[in-house]
Design brief:
This protein is an alpha+beta fold and 226 residues long. The protein has one domain: Beta Polymerase, domain 2 (2-Layer Sandwich). The protein has seven helices and five strands. Strands 1-2-5-4-3 form a five-stranded mixed sheet. It is globular.
Length: 226
C-alpha cells in the first residue's frame, strides 16, 4: 500500500513538474491537487449514497431493485493532462475545477430502460442537486450505436469548515447497454490492431440487437405489473 501511495505521489509531481521548477511551488500544487481529488471522491460518495437510498425506497415500493450495480471512478492523471492540453489550458487545479466536468464519474446500471428515467427524475427532484448538462443517448443513440443517459450535476459536500459544490458525471444505462459499451471499447481500442469498417458495422448491428433486447424485456416487465 505504501509503495502504491509513493508511486501515486510521484505521478502527481510529474504532472506539475513542467509548471514550475520551484520545488515549493510544485509541492503546494501537489497538495492542492490531492485536496481537490479528495473533494471529488466525497462528491461521488454523496451521489452514490443518494442512489442507494433511492434503490432501497423503490425496492419497497415496487418489490424489486431498479439498480443492478454501480461503478465509480476518478479520471486518471494522464487523462486530465491530455484533456487540459487539448483545450489549450494550463496544468493547474483551477483549470481542472473550472473547465473539466467529468473528473468524478458514477455509472448506474439499471434493470430496465424505464428505471433509467425513474432514477433520473427522482435524483433531479432533490433540492441539493443541480443539473448542469444532460445528453440522452438512449433516445438519440450515437452513430456507432452507443446508448446511455449522461448527466452532469453539481452536488454539495459538507466539510469541517465549508460547503463546496462539486461536479459529478452520471451515466445511467441498462445491463445490455453496459455490456455492449464495455465490449465495444475492448474491441475498438485493442492495441496493435486496426479496427475495420466492417467491424464497426457489425458492432452497430449488435447495438441494435441490444436495443431490441431492452424493448422486449420492457414489454415483459409491463405484463408483470398489470
Amino acid at each position: 500500500m505504501r509503495n502504491e501511495k509513493e508511486e501515486y505521489q510521484k505521478r502527481v509531481q510529474s504532472f506539475f513538474k513542467d509548471a514550475d521548477t520551484n520545488i515549493e511551488v510544485i509541492s503546494e500544487r501537489m497538495m492542492q491537487f490531492n485536496t481537490l481529488m479528495a473533494y471529488y471522491r466525497c462528491a461521488m460518495m454523496e451521489v452514490e449514497t443518494k442512489f442507494n437510498v433511492l434503490n432501497e425506497q423503490f425496492s419497497l415500493q415496487y418489490d424489486r431493485n431498479p439498480i443492478n450495480g454501480m461503478k465509480t471512478r476518478l479520471k486518471s492523471l494522464f487523462s486530465i493532462r491530455e484533456k487540459l492540453e487539448g483545450k489549450g489550458l494550463s496544468l493547474s487545479v483551477k483549470a481542472i475545477e473550472e473547465n473539466l466536468s467529468d473528473i468524478a464519474g458514477i455509472r448506474v446500471i439499471c434493470s430496465f430502460t424505464d428505471d433509467v428515467y425513474l432514477l433520473r427524475d427522482a435524483l433531479l427532484k432533490q433540492d441539493d442537486i443541480t443539473l448542469i448538462c444532460e445528453k440522452d443517448y438512449i433516445k438519440n443513440p450515437k452513430p456507432n450505436g452507443y446508448r446511455s443517459l449522461h448527466l452532469i450535476v453539481s452536488v454539495p459536500i459538507f466539510l469541517s469548515h465549508e460547503k463546496r459544490s462539486m461536479k459529478v458525471e452520471i451515466q445511467l444505462r441498462t445491463i445490455s447497454m453496459d455490456s455492449w459499451a464495455s465490449l465495444e471499447h475492448q474491441l475498438r481500442y485493442k492495441k496493435d490492431f486496426e479496427f475495420s469498417e466492417k467491424m464497426a458495422k457489425e458492432l452497430l448491428h449488435c447495438a441494435n440487437l441490444s436495443a431490441e433486447l431492452d424493448n422486449r424485456m420492457d414489454k415483459l416487465r409491463e405484463i408483470t405489473i398489470k
